[in-house]
Amino acid sequence: MRDLYTGDRSLGAGYSAPVHPGVMTHSSSPRPLTPHTARALFREAALDIAALCVPTHCVLCAAPDRSLCRGCATVLHPRPTAQRLAPLVRQGPAAGPPAPLPPVFSACPYTDAVRGVIVAVKERGRSDAIPALARLLAEGILASDALACGARESRPSLPLVVPLPSTRASERARGFRHMECAARGAIRVLRQRGGYRLSLRPWLCSRPRRDQVGLGRDARIRNVTHTMSASPRVRGCRVLLVDDLITTGASVREACRALHAAGAQVVGIVTIAYAQRHSS
Ligand SMILES: [Zn+2]
């Protein structure tokens, strides 16, 4: 398993220690130090030093020295899945025929492990675990067809990445915008892996609303409807909307409504995880 899949601070279960040039092993076959293994070694050393300076522990099992230990990281497998949402019914000044929405790609199901990492980030302020979510988000983006346009280096042809916002109250309590951070991390991963040069634009904001957790489908839709607005700067832009979790799709649809109302074209929707009980 490549370290891409294993979370922020781990090399993964399948990782085997690299061999430096000139160092003879029991098989007497010196192997070159590749850029990949060199980066992995450097990162592990840096994390060891960081753990000495700022003690940390695994967000899932509390093992010391890593935000996500190697064992826990191996269960965060990307298993991209797509689902369709019903077309968006446009009302008011932007009224017109229902606007079809792109399929929603999710990197993985909302397993206990994924839930544990997301809750640690959102509820316990463990921003150090965000890179694990960023890597999953990057896998979801790669699985979608949002990057299928134009050359990788062709910046204008790639969509702008717009994270779905939390409420201001949640952001204040948390001290950071977790999806903005995760999207920035995913953009970094995609640049390293595929040379994609995506740009982050946090151009959605959310008015106060009740937390969606614990609400049924209809209550979620009522709770979130007309609570988001998009910056006028998004007009005419192609947008890749990203979020952490899709359950009923109510928040994603509201974000799409706000983006459409502001004149944007939503060309892709990607979430880190999907809840099994979702419906559109
Ligand atoms: Zn662990």
- Let me know the number of strands: 8
Order of helices and strands: HHEEHHEHHEEHEEHE
Give the ligands present. Answer: zinc ion
Q: For this entry, what is the oligomeric state of its chains?
A: single chain
Task: Give average pLDDT, whole number.
Answer: 81
Tell me about this structure.
The chain has 280 residues and is an alpha/beta fold. The chain folds into two domains: 3-70, no CATH class; 76-274, no CATH class. The protein is 34% helix and 14% strand. It contains eight helices and eight strands, in the order ααββααβααββαββαβ. The chain has helices at residues 35-53, 70-73, 112-124, 130-143, 168-174, 178-194, 217-224, 250-261; strands spanning 81-83, 104-109, 160-163, 199-200, 204-206, 228-230, 238-246, 265-274. Helix 4 (130-143) packs across helix 6 (178-194). 39% of the residues are buried. The structure holds zinc ion. Zinc ion binds next to helix 2. Residues 58, 60-61, 63, 69, 71-72 line the site of zinc ion. Pfam families: Pribosyltran. Belongs to the ComF/GntX family. Residues 223-275 form the Phosphoribosyltransferase domain. InterPro entries: ComF/GntX_DNA_util-trans, PRTase-like, PRTase_dom.
Question: How is the secondary structure organized here?
Answer:
Blueprint: H1 35-53, H2 70-73, E1 81-83, E2 104-109, H3 112-124, H4 130-143, E3 160-163, H5 168-174, H6 178-194, E4 199-200, E5 204-206, H7 217-224, E6 228-230, E7 238-246, H8 250-261, E8 265-274
Parallel strand pairs: 2-8, 3-4, 3-7, 7-8
Antiparallel strand pairs: 1-2, 5-6
Helix pairs in contact: 4-6
Organism: Klugiella xanthotipulae
Pfam families: Pribosyltran
InterPro entries: ComF/GntX_DNA_util-trans, PRTase-like, PRTase_dom
